[in-house]
UniProtKB/TrEMBL annotation:
This is Phosphatidate cytidylyltransferase. Belongs to the CDS family. GO terms for biological process: CDP-diacylglycerol biosynthetic process. The lineage of its organism: Bacteria, Pseudomonadati, Pseudomonadota, Gammaproteobacteria, Lysobacterales. Pathway: Lipid metabolism; Phospholipid metabolism; CDP-diacylglycerol biosynthesis; CDP-diacylglycerol from sn-glycerol 3-phosphate: step 3/3.
Length: 275
């Protein structure tokens, strides 16, 4: 399993980096929208929508909203407001994780609630990614940094947890028994180191560099919340993975869960710092 995970990551990571750095924002929006549509398809199954016809109709609705949001890109306050809604949503998710049994029963009301949750996961993240990517200067590089922070945090958490986390205090044992607080500290450390180096390369100095590191730590924390929310959804649905698209990695939602949460937080932090 580990070998499959490594091979898949080595194949996908360079492609993702090239697409982020080389594509114009309009093309990047289309590819990212396609990826998010695939993740939304998996989310709808976790939410309890079994009918493929209903799930296809939902995807059509998501696509229409993507198109509508793209046409509104010249209204900055609207996109900024949606990013703010996304950040507020992930704060609310922290409460949901504390009450992990909430909405677990397979009722129509809980299904609809989870579909609404999916909308709050997907749309702010898409807008946040494009807001960063289209910003000047170095929007493509900042987008890559946002993704790199998530990857670095995931790697730091994995190795810190594997090396030092045995028998240590669990982060959320009812939701994701393998995660420990040692892993969280590893994620914070690796993320902060990446932010410090990237900030220096991007000529971010003094208090703004300190601010970038703080934003990074909050971004990493939100990425962990995103991971836990998807784990919660899978436990409610009684499945191991959201899909089987990537060998050793599960579905696309399994790869994007942390990204969905990190993007709005990083975008808002970048905006507040004037970067």
């Amino acid at each position: 399993m580990l070998r499959q995970r490594v091979i898949t990551a080595l194949l996908l990571a360079p492609l993702a980096i090239l697409l982020i750095l080389l594509l114009p924002t309009s093309v990047f929006a289309c590819l990212l929208g396609a990826a998010f549509l695939a993740a939304a398809w998996e989310w709808s199954r976790l939410a309890g929508v079994q009918s493929r016809v209903a799930r296809t109709a939902l995807l059509g609705f998501v696509l229409l909203l993507f198109l509508a949001l793209w046409t509104m890109r010249t209204t900055p306050w609207l996109w900024q407001a949606l990013i703010g809604v996304g950040v507020a949503w992930w704060l609310l998710v922290c409460v949901w994780l504390r009450h992990f049994a909430f909405a677990a029963a397979p009722t129509p009301e809980n299904r609809n609630l989870k579909l609404l949750a999916g909308a709050l996961v997907v749309f702010p993240a898409w807008v946040a990614a494009l807001s960063i990517h289209g910003s000047e200067p170095h929007g493509h590089v900042w987008t890559f940094l946002a993704m790199l922070l998530v990857w670095a945090a995931d790697t730091g958490a994995y190795f810190a947890g594997s090396l030092f986390g045995k028998g240590k205090r669990k982060l959320a044992p009812q939701i994701s028994p393998g995660k420990t607080w040692i892993g969280v500290y590893g994620a914070f450390t690796s993320g902060a180191l990446v932010a410090a180096v990237a900030g220096w390369l991007l000529k971010v100095h003094d208090l703004r560099l300190l601010g970038l590191i703080v934003v990074t730590i909050v971004t990493v924390a939100s990425s962990i919340v995103g991971d836990l929310l998807e784990s919660l959804m899978k436990r409610h649905a009684n499945v191991k993975d959201s899909g089987a698209l990537f060998p050793g990695h599960g579905g696309l939602l399994d790869r994007l869960d942390s990204v969905f949460a990190a993007l709005p937080v990083f975008a808002l932090g970048k905006l507040l710092l004037g970067l």
